[in-house]
Amino acid sequence: MPEQSVAQFFDSYSADFNALYGSRKTALNSLIDRTFRKSMRLRFERSVEGCMPVEGRSVLDVGCGPGHYSVHLASQGASSCFGLDFAESMVHLAQENAVGNRVSERCEFVCGDFSKYAFDRQFDYAIVMGFMDYIENPEPIIDKVLSLARRKAFFSFPSAGGFLAWQRKMRYKKRCSLFLYREANLEALFSRKKGMRFEIEKISRDFFVTVHLS
Which residues are registered as beta bridge partners of 203? Predict the structure, then answer.
């Protein structure tokens, strides 16, 4: 199953998550590292800004990883943050981070498959960062996310253009499946969604999509 390979991949290096491209810093690796981190920083900033004011509101964090989004938003006053991730070790890190930042009472992290998980509530905001990279058929995931969000949903999609996209595709080839996007693909996907408006922004190596639901 694709989700199993993704979970195994992220479980294998979750403890070294900050060393995203290894310790061998050639000039090329340093360039890739700076670009990747820039994209991560920008999508974090965009998501957090888009959730403001977050006081008293709820957040769904799909593919939560070590829980950085949930923990930060809980520390900013979110009433509850629910994070879901394929990789059990990532979930453990997220739980530890919530405890360390004294927001564990407002953060819940679960190991599971988002496409199969049965939710019993909606959320004010949904954040889907670094997750769509590994989804072969994005539309059902997008539809489910939008059904769970009341105010806004935020997505990142890896860009298909340029040398870094090709390099990343090659690097992931034997690890797990990776799916890249062009802006026209995203325009077509989100234009089919009725009763909402969306914005697509190119940030470094990613596209950042904001969907306004209310």
Answer: 206
Give the list of residues 6+ apart from residue 73 with CB closer than 8 angstroms, or none: 48, 51, 54, 59, 81
Residue of 179 and 152 predicted with greater confidence: 152
pLDDT at 73 over 50: yes
pTM as predicted: 0.84
Domains along the sequence of the chain with CATH: 2-13+39-212 (3.40.50.150)
CA dihedral over 51, 54, 58, 60, signed as positive or negative: positive
Which residue from 134, 148, 138 is spatially nearest to 61, judged by alpha carbons? Answer: 148
Whether residue 40 contacts residue 206, with contact meaning beta carbons closer than 8 Å, is answered with no
pLDDT digits (tens, 9 = 90+) for 81-97: 999 999 999 999 999 99
Q: Residue 146 has what DSSP assignment?
A: H
> Token pair of 55, please?
């006081």
Quick one: angle between helices 88-100 and 68-75, nearest 10?
A: 20
Q: What angle do CA 82, 15, 76 make, to 5 degrees?
A: 35
Residue 205 per-residue DSSP state: T
Closest CA to 14 of 103, 105, 86: 86
